[in-house]
Amino acid sequence: MTWRNQALETVRLLVLAAGAVVFLVPFALMIGISLDNNANFGLSFPPRIIPEEFGWKNFALIFQSLPIGTYYLNSLLIVAGSVVCHIVGATLAGYALSKGDFRGKGVWLLIILSAMMIPDQVIVFTRFLIFNQLQLINSFVGVILPTLAYPFGVFLVKQFMDSLPNELGEAAKIDGAHHFTIFLKIYVPLTLPIIATLSIITVMQKWNELLWPLLILSKSSMYTVSIGVANFTLGPNGPV
After folding, report:
1. Hey, CA dihedral for 70, 72, 77, 78, is it positive or negative?
2. Domain identity same for 171 and 182
3. Mean pLDDT of 84-102
4. Which of 111, 161, 184, 210 could serve as a FRET partner for 40 with CA atoms 20 to 30 Å apart?
5. Cα distances (Å, whole numbers) of residue 161 to 73, 91, 97, 135, 144
6. What is the predicted pLDDT for the residue at 11?
7. What residues make up the domain containing 43?
């Protein structure tokens, strides 16, 4: 390795190390604040990672003030259901748009791309009225169901499947396999990387989601962690 390559490798490692520090510092601050008995809901300046008075008071307070275990269980159920729905809907639609041969495929793809440009806040109240008519208010199904039709996931799977050879499906058809068999036994195993990516995206999105669960869930026993913490910090009886 020449000196120039060594210098480039060193610079690359330094840049990666700096990026790692930038991403890790907020987590270190979060842990330090949570273990500080004198901490409040604001951020002290200058920020300190090492707690001024180490203790578990904040954790005891949240468990005494909220049914946080129930909130975590609700969030886990919603996230798990959302991941399954998103993966099933996105892979089926993505396969149809990529490998299917039917009239109007380009129009459907255009509709999906157009839907990606519409903010979720624009349609959330219309969706609420529809779900109210379907009697899905105060149900986990109502929170999970919209993930069946996330256009971003459909587009992502479609683009990934476009890179897979069509000859695989054609060879299976010659052997008598139907579309669903081809999809399930040939293309799904090949799309595991994009399925893993969609799963991570869905987990992050649904765990942190606040607006839609806040609209559709009014029973405190069904609150997610996001709703419970928001009510605790911003509610009329919560700390200021």
Report:
1. positive
2. yes
3. 90
4. 210
5. 35, 9, 9, 37, 25
6. 87
7. 3-65
